């Protein structure tokens, strides 16, 4: 594989026509005709046949079948990644809008075949911007390949950052709605996190995932875990703690018979984020895999949580002692933030207990010597309205209850949300009651009771028939 | 420092007879009166010696006297190991800083070596006899005799202080029990044993067994009584009385078990439900004194029950007031507490703290119970006020202002008092919660919480529907295939 690093100010056409010259790939050229006679009814396996199949107006589902099955896998990929016999780039022949599916196959094959002709990033970007989602949805596996290829392509072009835009375009256009989870999600977020372009991910993260459709995307459970883990990373890097908490929790509490290592990491981060955001931990939902909390108890994080926030010296001691571990697990940043915020939580607790308190008392409670430090801390907290308090000149702090801020609009908003949620649940329930799985189960239940009927004649028959009645009413 | 460590050790040592652990010493003076003779006179047998040894170990000022008494009681028993236990307890105290002025052991008591030898010989002989007997019974396979053999051996081991063997023989005898009465006897023996041993965790399981056997026995006795038509009245009545007696014993055992495990509320209600002392039969004196029941019950009640519950269950309880008669100061204590005279309450508690600390069952819990009573006292005292000066509270409780502040702050932080401390002016102010605003805030928060929980659960459901669940990596690919296959077959069948 060689990279062409010409500053491509020339038009795409030109560049594509230049490429074939240094790229006479003998293997491809040979393999295609060699395989040709063996398959009969589909005609020759060659790129030109493929291209003609793509270009004739064929329903996309049929075309997808054809593209998938015209040759064995490795041959197919190599053929798709090759050039036309006359050295012309097939992409130049095809139109992005009309031949989305075909281009998708070719592009994704080229990304993952070594020695394939160079793929200009501009073309791929253009494709991501203009492809027709309805066509692409016929080949979710190729979309996954494309998404996986984008970061590789960007890295080859010199910077991973370049992948963010095309991935974003792909991600925002491909699924029917952004609440569908796709294989592109984790790839996009991983790219954002590793290039530290956190805010680029926000438009995507703003839509919570509610729908899983394996027909649209060939998902693996890891996709869900990685997406939510990376989402948590993005939010915690942007210090949007409550969102981060939610994402980490989703990752840590995803269903499964076993626990994934990434879930453990998510749990650790979840706990730290909770400490930063709320000053205490809330127990994870009951449906979390029980192995995780058990494992967590044996980590130094657990010690840290137990000592938080009161025993500052002990917290320091833990952090100093386990610094290497925290650094190795990349949690040192969160740990330090939690440690820095510990005095704030202590002060918050004091406001619930005291009306007035001298700075020196607070300093003692917080575990520092200097009153100035406490003074500036309290001023900061008052400014960010974390506490409501007054600081008098002689160093006495008067705590007061935080003013209640409630507006009618807030209440209305919450009510509207609740109603929406209620309607959604109602709809879901009806859907479920209609679903094939549920009905099969219900019918099975009926059959079982019918079996009971034959065993126990008069009683069972009656219950069986009454069940029949009930079901008929249900169907009608 | 050292003392603290040892004290924390004590709960872990399920009351050994060789009670050599040194406890923090208890003073006995005008402020803390303690009448040893009167105290010990209500106990007999082994528990008297156990208690005396305990007193020897914890009260240097009356250690010689206690040791002497211990020896007089000890010679009535047949466990020579108690001699060395008592002496070593005394020596421990004598070697501690508080006990420097105590006379050496030889001046206080003379150990009769003759007695020890005699007892040892006698014990040996009896043991051989019992074991031979058991062996012959076993050979002859007479169930009832084997049971009695085990029981006798259990009794023997218990008397000589070998608790493990005693327990072994008692439990072994269970296999040979033929009636529920036998099981009941066995359970009661074991209960006596474990209470003596202060092995509180074990008590409840034997109570369960005993209660089961008691029910069975009653069920058997019932029809039998009605079949024997001759004395219609007296026949069912007698088992009834017996049953009540046993039930009372079980209740006491249960109460002690709750107390031993620090479950004061349950202990209180168990103690307050006890029947009159006559029903407890020989357990009074052998295990506890009636005064003990009054103390245990009252302290637990004050520490855990609400005022109205105390009024209903304690003051209005004619059976329990008989127990209280045994210890007049308990009546004063309740009186003071109920009339909100907390200063007197706490003074009484500290005045009789020695009496409480030297008790073998109550000792380790006194601190806890006192703390509970203090807390409830503060909460009750503050209840009617909106604001109060800490000084005034200090006077009412007989503490310093700082002490009061510390206690109050802990209580606020534990959520027991709804108030805040003005630490500059030393005023405690009750919180005036704005219920309306609280309700609104709560409703809004709950709404958003439920929404996000809902969302998470729905996602979870979808994931499960799509079978995107975390699986064991090893079995992953194959099982996936298998599942896919199954699903395909199922689909095929359906269509």
Explain this structure to me?
The complex is a heterodimer of chains A (476) and B (495). Chain A has 476 residues and is mainly α. Chain A has a domain at 354-431: Orthogonal Bundle (Arc Repressor Mutant, subunit A), CATH 1.10.10.10. Chain A is 64% helix and 3% strand. Chain A contains 26 helices and five strands. Chain A has helices at residues 12-18, 26-35, 47-55, 60-69, 73-80, 90-93, 100-112, 121-130, 133-136, 140-156, 164-173, 184-194, 202-205, 221-237, 241-252, 261-278, 291-297, 300-307, 312-321, 323-328, 332-353, 359-366, 371-383, 408-434, 436-455, 457-475, and strands spanning 180-181, 211-212, 354-358, 389-391, 396-399. In chain A, a hairpin with a 4-residue loop joins strand 4 and strand 5 (396-399). The relative contact order of chain A is 0.04. By secondary structure, chain B is mainly alpha-helical. Among the domains of chain B are: 36-111, no CATH class; 385-430, Winged helix-like DNA-binding domain superfamily/Winged helix DNA-binding domain (Arc Repressor Mutant, subunit A, Orthogonal Bundle), CATH 1.10.10.10. Chain B has helices spanning 2-9, 36-41, 45-58, 63-74, 81-95, 105-108, 113-140, 143-159, 163-174, 180-197, 200-227, 234-260, 264-272, 283-286, 290-304, 307-315, 318-325, 328-338, 342-351, 353-357, 366-382, 390-397, 401-413, 435-465, 476-494, and strands at residues 387-389, 419-422, 427-430. In chain B, strand 2 and strand 3 form a beta hairpin. In chain B, helix 3 (45-58) runs antiparallel to helix 4 (63-74). The longest helix of chain B has 31 residues, at 435-465. At the A-B interface, strand 2, helix 14, helix 15, helix 21 and strand 3 of A face helix 23, strand 2 and helix 24 of B. Strand 3 (354-358) of chain A pairs parallel with strand 2 of chain B, so a sheet runs across the interface. Chain B: Keywords: Cytoplasm, Nucleus, Signalosome. Chain B: Pfam families: PCI, RPN7. Chain B: This is PCI domain-containing protein.
